Amino acid sequence: MIVVQDLHRHFGGFRAVDGASLEIAAGSITGLIGPNGAGKTTLFNVIAGRLPPTSGRVFMAGEDITGLPPHELFHKGLLRTFQIAHEFGSMTVRENLMMVPARQSGEVLWNAWFHPGRVRAEDRAIRDKADEVLEFLTISHLADQKAANISGGQKKLLELGRTMMVDAKIVFLDEVGAGVNRTLLNTIGDAIIRLNRERGYTFCVIEHDMDFIARLCDPVIVMAEGKVLAQGTVDEVRNDERVIEAYLGTGLKNKVVANG
């Protein structure tokens, strides 16, 4: 689905992504882990078109998408969420979902004036879709609440729901568990697994909660210092000496081994 080849993103002399190469297979839930500052979010931002690469290429289903802006990638089915949810706080949860589909007839003044029936029919279909998404995510009870008033975990579910309002092919989830309680995190995990198994979504997930990663992800890719350090199952990367050292440092690693 996604192939990244020798990707670099530099900020002056700082190499946030430094020659990363990886593949995200269609139909997978791929985990992307690494210590803080490893380059994970920068990699997401380059793939998703929010930052241009310094060099390297990104392919989606064989098509070169390097440097395409987010709105073009959106129409190709590549979407991403953010560590801090970006909701429209003054709108209801349902309205936030209804905002997502592009090129709605009601956005054109001509249609509103001369084709009001078409606009109403389309609005009803989008509203029905939004209600279906809310039911899928088990948050129908929040439909009419202002998005600003729901919890952080519920906002993460809303962001996931927004990806369901369009024909998403691959979704990049950036720390979906940050600030989320365990119950809601399990609900989010359930939704991701169902979207993957029932609707064929491909996911790439940045997350520090290794229990969450272990439950959802295979394979897991480990980044450190802007590079891909290791890839494999959760157990394989947990036991990889390079990964232990990247997370703990040589001194701490030797202390853990000595005490173990």
TrEMBL record:
One of its GO terms (molecular function) is ATP binding. SUPFAM superfamilies: P-loop containing nucleoside triphosphate hydrolases (SSF52540). Keywords: ATP-binding, Nucleotide-binding, Transport. Residues 2-250 form the ABC transporter domain. InterPro entries: AAA+_ATPase, ABC_AA/LPS_Transport, ABC_transporter-like_ATP-bd, ABC_transporter-like_CS, BCA_ABC_TP_C, P-loop_NTPase. The keyword Cell wall biogenesis/degradation does not apply. This is ABC transporter ATP-binding protein. The lineage of its organism: Bacteria, Pseudomonadati, Pseudomonadota, Alphaproteobacteria, Rhodobacterales.
